[in-house]
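Good morning C.,

I know you're traveling, so I'll keep this short. The sequence:
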Amino acid sequence: MHGNSSCRLEALELVDYFLTSNITLFCFDFPGCGLSEGEFISLGWFERDDTATIVEHLRTHRNVSTIGLWGRSMGAVTALLHGDRDPSIGGMVLDSPFSNLRTLCDELAASHSKVPKFLVGAAMSFITKTIRKKADFDLNKLTPITHVKECFIPALFATGEQDEFIKPHHTQELHDAYAGDKNLIKFSGDHNSSRPDFFNNSAVIFFVNTLQVHFLLTEETKMSEEERAVFKQKLAERRERERKLKSEDSKQDGGP
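The tokens, ready to paste straight into the viewer:
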């Protein structure tokens, strides 16, 4: 599940990891993002209901067995807000969620402006009232930290050590307060940087275990060794083409 000001295309870099591990990937645009209709996003508040609808759709059509949630930023917050009310979710990967929106706003205001704290508070009160009137939800209730104490789904938390937008302490606090089985991975990178291979591989292994992939696969549904080899070869060729295109673009832009 994607972050704010983004879309389902975020999931493209994960396709390789999932399909070669016999895990299907369902990605979508939240309302107000990508190709989905809608005027507002709510940073997880209403998105959790969209997530519940999608989970119900997948179960109703019986195209999948166990279900896991992978969210980044707003998507990770959404997963946490949904997780404490749906214990049937097999596992969650939670990349860079905030613990409390009000705390995040105060931090961003302090680091990117010299506005006095009391003025920030007044501005936030005005914004909160406006959003409550126009979008019918309360910013002050966006507090994932209050949900993690009632969530027992196996969870893998992650954060970039150089993240200056949602600082690593948010993820650390959520991890520490989380009630269920949990782990935390920190990697070099900021909020929007590409995630390293070791993290993506660790997350897929986490899902292979929590979703019980090896126990649920049949000869008809799993990818054979020959199919996996062909798929990986095609992926390698595609990545090489993308690398060459980026190199050519860099040279045209006057890069090294």
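Safe travels,
E.
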